[in-house]
Specification:
15 helices, 15% strand, Aspartate Aminotransferase, domain 2, seven-stranded mixed β-sheet, alpha/beta, Aspartate Aminotransferase, domain 1, 2 domains, 393 residues
């Protein structure tokens, strides 16, 4: 049955304590107790509904976490001060020295750097694989593998992960499947397809304004309680708390996410179909020529489309830079990293958001030196944007 995350969010009954239609913003770092015993119980995680200290929980962050859990069809969620904080805290909660992770070689550059360069300092090994090849994933599994980590749609090559198959492999080996769903909120619901943990950079589509940095971890009650445990919870002890004002702002923006994702997807599909006839090498999961097009159709919540990300391969960095400068001058959008903004953003991935990936690895994974990644905006007249892009080409 098709899942509708927008409906789940709108079914939440969240309103202000004093009659406001929006929940009140938490303006306190610490909270009072009527009895010392209640404070002690809260430290031990045994006082439901009580708040201790904002690094642990506060009402604003709890409201947003509840909405994200509804969005992702998980029992609970935890919000963080960045997407990288969500990824790193979740992985460090799952893994200790001597453990092993299997991950996609095609992934966000910051994530790649954490997995490749940072985790080995703590004797956590990582094997990078072609995540679209289940046999390669299976072969990489070890007795000490704790996590398979992937992105629903990978950055920047837009490969689609077979989440049910990856979940089967992970669970067969006693591991967890962790999925970054930043590119496809509403479109994909990884937890319904077997993912144990879903992470986000809320900076991107979920917030949609590029005016803050934030992240989220959506998972079971058990895992979120582990993360927030005062004695050994990674999120609690490393302290990447999200500011209450930002939580409240993101929560309001979340209620327009369904409209925005539909428009992002509509515009991206329009551009992809038209530009695909120009003879350029173009990557977009909504095109029938995409290797995982049918898989995407199988996994997606259909009314939200194929997403707002597409990529054009111009072969060389020099051509990519010239093209992007022309597009910015023509008013197509901005030459900038990040995505999910209401204006179109574009960058040459190998020299920006994937620059942490060594050149030889980029070549092995098929990342061209001239690949331009587009985050297509919410333009009302996408036909006019197409004309501008064609003129720049």
């Amino acid at each position: 049955m098709n899942f509708n995350p927008a409906t789940k969010i709108f079914e939440l009954k969240q309103f202000g304590e004093f009659g406001g239609v929006n929940p009140s913003v938490t303006d306190s770092s610490t909270f009072t107790f009527l009895k010392g015993e209640t404070m002690e119980d809260t430290f031990l995680g045994q006082a439901e509904g009580c708040f201790l200290y904002s690094r642990h929980w506060n009402p604003s962050n709890k409201y947003l976490a509840d909405a994200l859990a509804a969005l992702e069809n998980t029992e609970s969620a935890w919000v963080t001060a960045s997407g990288m904080a969500a990824i790193t805290c979740a992985l460090l909660q799952l893994c200790s020295s001597g453990d092993h992770i299997v991950t996609s070689v095609t992934t966000y550059g910051g994530t790649f750097a954490f997995l490749k360069n940072w985790l080995p300092r703590y004797n956590i090994e990582v094997t990078f694989v072609d995540i679209t090849n289940p046999e390669q994933v299976e072969k990489a599994m070890r007795p000490n593998t704790k996590v398979i980590y992937t992105e629903s749609v990978t950055n920047p090559l837009l490969q689609v992960s077979d989440i049910p198959e990856l979940a089967n492999i992970a669970h067969k080996h006693g591991a967890k499947l962790m999925v970054d769903n930043t590119f496809t909120p509403m479109i994909m619901t990884p937890a319904r397809n077997g993912a144990d943990i879903v992470v986000y950079s809320m900076t991107k589509f979920i917030n949609g304004k590029n005016d803050c940095v934030a992240g989220a971890i959506c998972a079971s009650n058990e895992f979120v309680n582990q993360l927030s445990n005062v004695n050994d919870g990674t999120a609690m002890l490393l302290g990447p708390v999200l500011d209450s004002m930002r939580s409240s702002s993101i929560l309001k923006n979340l209620h327009t996410l369904h409209l925005r994702m539909k428009q992002h997807s509509y515009n991206a599909l329009f551009l992809a179909e038209k530009l695909n006839n120009s003879g350029l090498k173009l990557i977009y999961p909504g095109l029938k020529t995409h290797p995982q097009h049918e898989l995407h159709k199988k996994l997606m919540n259909k009314e939200f489309g194929f997403g707002g990300l597409l990529a054009i391969d111009l072969k060389t960095h020099k051509k990519a830079n010239a093209f992007m400068r022309k597009m910015q001058d023509a008013g197509v959008g901005y030459l900038a990293v990040s995505l999910g903004y209401f204006k179109t953003l574009f960058s040459c991935s190998g020299h920006s958001t994937s620059s942490e990936v060594p050149q030889e690895v980029q070549k092995q994974m098929g990342l061209s030196d001239g690949l331009v990644r587009f985050s297509v905006g919410l333009d009302n007249n996408i036909e006019e944007i197409l004309k501008k892009i064609e003129n720049c080409l």
